[in-house]
Amino acid sequence: MAIRVFKYNSKEAKNFIKKLENRVESVPVKIEKEVKRIGEKVKKEGDRALIEYTLKFDEVLINSEELKIKEEEIEKAYSEISQTLLSAIRLAVEKVKKFHLKGISYSWFEQEEKGIILGQIIRPVESVGLYIPGGKGGETPLISTVVMSAVPANLAGVKKIVMVSPPRKDKTLHPALLVAAREAGVREIYRVGGPWSIFGLAYGTENLPKVDMICGPGNIYVTLAKKLVSSFVGIDILAGPSEVLIIADESAPPDFIVWDLLAQAEHDPYSLSVLITNSTKLAKEVKEKLSLALKEGTRSEIAKKALAKRGGIILVKDLKVAFEISNLIAPEHLEIMVENPWEWLYLVKNAGVIFLGAYTPEAIGDYIAGPNHILPTMGLSRFASALTTEKFLKKINFMQYSFTALKKEAQAVISLAEAENLPFHAQAVKIRLERGIEGGFEK
Known about the structure:
The protein has 443 residues and is of the alpha/beta class. It has two domains: 5-25 and 240-383, 3-Layer(aba) Sandwich (Rossmann fold), CATH 3.40.50; 46-235, Nitrogenase molybdenum iron protein domain (Rossmann fold), CATH 3.40.50. The chain has 16 helices and 14 strands. The strands form three sheets. It has a six-stranded parallel beta sheet with strand order 1-11-10-9-12-13, sandwiched between helices. Helix 10 packs across helix 11. The N and C termini lie far apart (81 Å).
């Protein structure tokens, strides 16, 4: 299969860009009804529903007492992974922690002027549930997602961090997931997945705790479940298929581009993999090498479908146009693989995360670099950001006025209240003017 090449300003290119720009897709009514039914059953039946759906969809029979992973299982997991993998997990935790420490906010207050004190209290969310997909049969554990979601929550000071993930056929979770969870600060782990686990975390069951916030990616069913509970439980973001957009000039090695495009395409048949370049030579080489590379990978069939749906090479005459197109598409991952990439950084308006230079592959951001890989997809980077410690923190404003300070601003408040036809608001100020004490906070 050959990737499509579009010349900018052609009708085909415009249609392709418009299609990517409007790639948020509606959920089929049938799926939405099915997920709603699951939610209603979990709310009504609790553990019984979790067990029934786990048997039906994951083909694993568990009982209520087996939902929670025991401490000895976690301890055993450490002996079931290699020291090399353990070191990699610990390095990832360390790097993610170091980066996210810089984003923590702290409570503050100040005396704006005499008699007025304003401030903000920062408080962490009390409890968070992390959803970690099990991968194919639980054998492709998303270790990095555990780290990326648990570390910021832990740094924010969340007291109760729990994790859910679909069990393997033998009822276990992959040992690497258990180790990563413990290293990243997860307190409790449950062997349950799918949309029913999202509803379980939102409503609470006999053995699965109710939480205040739910984080983590999943398939369309899991994503829809998160959307349905988001009116009364916090969520991180509604994630879609993975995306990469690469802006490159003739200096970029075509092999690097090929494997970066495929690194996203192998995730999902709806993944986005796009190259925008001003080099006809580079476009030709990438197209040729991509066809050859697809013959090598074990996930080639998935990648081929993704490239057919949302893959393409767009040829432009000016790199400035490349950035204009990129800002319209608002990709999850943006790679700038050009000479002197820092000179072009100012043109980026919309992107989940940016990778500068030929030796900064998207994969380094997935695992080790430090910035979070839980990112806005489907063009949501127009207004949304990566997951940070801020997501797990609440900001509670406070204020205090003395009588003198209130008296100074009272008429403005009264005028605004009366203009909004809220006389009781105005009276609440007037009564204080009548009974207050000069210079005091109370009578």
